[in-house]
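For practice. Supply one:
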Amino acid sequence: MEKASKSVDFLVVGAGISGMGAAYQLHKSKKSFTILEGQNRAGGVLESRKKDGYTYDLGANSAASSAPYLEFVKELDIDHKFQSILAKSLPRSLWQEQGLMRITSPLRAILGARWLSPKAKWTFLTEPFRRSQHTPEESVYTFLSKRIGEEAVVKIVDAVMTGIYAGDIHQLSADVVFKELKDGVIEHGSLFKALRNKKTNGPRTITGFNGGFSDVSNAFENKFADNLVLNATVQSIHKKEDEWRITLPNGSIYLSKNLILTPPADTTATLLQSINSELSAALNTIPYAPMGVLHLGIPYGEHPIP
């Protein structure tokens, strides 16, 4: 890439999930923008692979449907690759000491679960009659333990939250993850009552793509080819008066009055070290929970679904 000096309304660093979302909003707002991505592709953790006839994702492998999300898919012109299914129709299982346990419906599974103690079931069933105090910025673990008990949280919620957020329930903020639900508990005094009064837009739908979530990143690259610069590792960031200046290792320079940083917290902390050491130090305190993902390929019809 030749040396260049280009000024736009917004500079976006990173073309992962957050970067693509930011770029799409800027596109809708008719702002000029450039996306700088250090890798040779967009998508970040959204990466799909194929092996022995199976397609699998290294990152997210499904997403809950919503109006903005469907609008994004349509804008990328990949709605013909789109797949959806009602969440309640998906078979789910939890691994417990007794082995793989099939979850049919949440309430029925809990009441009939051999892997939950009678005390845990009683704590769960008496939740509507339990009063508890909730404080700002309490964790998912603390918030739900007060409502349905520690055992149910450890054996059920932990597995669900790990699958959705790839995070530690002792670190995940209930005010972020379950804001609407927590507000409902505070208003109605019960988790069950909050769920009953929660406004929904119909049955929850889970979505994916024929070629995995790489379909999204590939379509994004095509749609925003004129805005996206790949293999563009940021060497330095400086701010002079009201303008940001980003320099790449090859000497290319990008200028903007607005800067959006979307890499992981530790990477962003490094980029900001020389600009705002206090913010950089704060970003370095954000923990990331390690997680392993195991992909199993089971030929259709050869084995019963667990």
Observations:
- The longest strand covers residues 5-13.
